Each structure stands twice: as structure tokens, then as C-alpha cells.
Amino acid sequence: MPTVSSSGARIAYDVHGNAGAPALLFLNSIGSTRALWERQRRAFAGDYRIVLYDARGHGQSDAPPGPYTIAQLAQDALAILDAERIATAQICGLSLGGLTALWLAVHAPDRVRSLTMANTGARIGSVEFWDARMALVHERGMKAVADVAIPNWFTEGFRAREPATVQPFRDDIESTPVEGYLGCSAAMRDGDLRESLTAVRCPVLAIAGASDRSTPPELLQFVHDRLPGSRLVMLQAAHISNVEQETAFNAALSTFLAAHA
């Protein structure tokens, strides 16, 4: 497993596919790992050089004391691209990963060939929300976070139909290091890129979940309305739409990537 050092943390990542293929970087949500993208890795590794990594504070990456910032999380992604000598990549991020990817499109535009923002926004939640979530972690631990998050991550019907699919996501939340979750919560609490949207110049695909309570569709409608030429796709899913609506998600992403490879 390759790693890269970035701002005092060791960031763990994987690369799949042909080294000469166009690069496609995926960024995971808070409380998940690079395993979030396994279905997309299988679908796209034949045509793209897939780069997956565990966000700072998650999975096999280090979890130094926070708070973290969106800029710091984005610099972790750039460190991986630099280590792999990837000049530009198509980037797809979900939730926290989407906000991080947007930062890259704004502040490192020469590295971003296209941007897919899934179940995310230019601003996610409020200071009060994230302060309450961080208090929950301190008071009751990560199991309590999983109890709150999983009903928002997957619709009730999907949870009933596919409990074996949902369980690993609960496990990932519960095993997320407390310092890492708190650090990334602070990054989301303090991260607001709404006023920076006009700086985005790359092609943008926004994928929203009609039943997403964590990042309601209006967050991506806001982004779409301010980025002429962007495309907004609505899926019948909750927060983890790339899993709940894998086929439709992959179809939308495939069409978009092919147009901007």
C-alpha cells in the first residue's frame, strides 16, 4: 500500500488501472474510507487510472489531532497526485470529498480536468450542526454517530433490502478514529466555498440524491445555478448515491468523463 507524507500525516492510497490512462481521483465522505468507491473502481479501472485514498483521519491514513481544514485535506490529495506524477485528473468527490474537490477546482485549477460533485455542496451544514455532532462524538462515541448517520446515508427501503451492503458502512463509521472524525467535522464546520464558485472553470457534474437529508438536493441546485454549463443529475437515493443507485450513478459519471477525457 503506497503512502505519501502531507502536512505531518501519512496518507494511504491505491492506484488501479493502466498507468497511461487518464487519471480519475475519488474522494471519500466523512466517516467512510476509500472502500466507498469500490463499485466505481470496478466499473472504471478498465478505461482510467483510478486513484483512491483514505481522507486524513480515516481508514489507514493517519489521524493527527485537529482541527483540519478543507485546504489541508485538498493538499493531501495534491500530494498524492504529485507522488504519482499526475499532472491533471478528473476528480469525483462525495460529501466532504465533494467539498474538498471543489476547493481543488477553485485553488488548483490546472490540476483538475473535470469536477464531479456528488451529494455535497459548496457549504455543508451549519456551525451549530457540526458543533452538535462533535459534542455527540465526545459524549457518546462513534457508535452514536453511526446510529444517526446510517438512516441518512441510505433510504429505509434500501436498508431493508440490502443490510449486508449497509453494514460495512456502519462498521466504517464506528471504526473511524475520534480525532479524525472531529478534525474533519471542524473542516466541514468552517468550510464555505459559496463565494468561490465563480472561480470554477472546469466542466462540472453535480449528482444529487432526492432523499438525501445529509446534503439536501438544494445544495447542489445552488451550485448548478451558479455554474453555467454544469449538469445536475437527480438520483432516487439518499446520501451514498454511488452505492444505492450504482448503475445510474456510473452511467451519469461515465458519460460525463468520456466527454472530458
pLDDT average, as an integer? 97
Radius of gyration: 17 Å
CATH class category: Alpha Beta
CATH topology (level 3) name: Rossmann fold
Query: What is the H/E order?
Result: EEEHEHEHEHHHHHEHEHH
Number of strands: 8
What is the strand arrangement across the widest sheet? 1-2-4-3-5-6-7-8
Structural class: alpha/beta
**Low-confidence region ranges:** none
User: Which of globular, elongated, flat, extended, rod-shaped describes the shape?
Assistant: globular
Assign a percent range to the helix content: 40-55%
Query: Can you tell me the number of structural domains?
Result: 1
Figure out the total of helices: 11
Superfamily (CATH H level) name: Alpha/Beta hydrolase fold, catalytic domain
Tell me what portion of residues adopts beta-strand conformation.
15-25%
Q: Secondary structure elements and their pairing?
A:
Layout lengths: L2 E4 L2 E8 L6 E5 L10 H7 L4 E5 L16 H14 L5 E6 L1 H12 L4 E7 L8 H14 L1 H12 L2 H6 L1 H13 L2 H13 L13 E6 L7 H10 L4 E5 L5 H4 L1 H14 L2
Helix pairs in contact: 2-3, 4-5, 4-8, 5-7
Description:
The chain has 261 residues and is an alpha/beta fold. The chain has a single domain, classed as Alpha/Beta hydrolase fold, catalytic domain (Rossmann fold, 3-Layer(aba) Sandwich), CATH 3.40.50.1820. The protein contains 11 helices and 8 strands. It has helices at residues 38-44, 70-83, 96-107, 127-140, 142-153, 156-161, 163-175, 178-190, 217-226, 241-244, 246-259, and strands at 3-6, 9-16, 23-27, 49-53, 89-94, 112-118, 204-209, 231-235. It has an 8-stranded mixed β-sheet, with helices on both faces. Strand 7, helix 9 and strand 8 (231-235) form a beta-alpha-beta unit. Helix 2 packs across helix 3, helix 4 (127-140) crosses helix 5 (142-153) and helix 4 (127-140) runs antiparallel to helix 8 (178-190). The chain is globular and about 45 Å long. The mean pLDDT is 97.
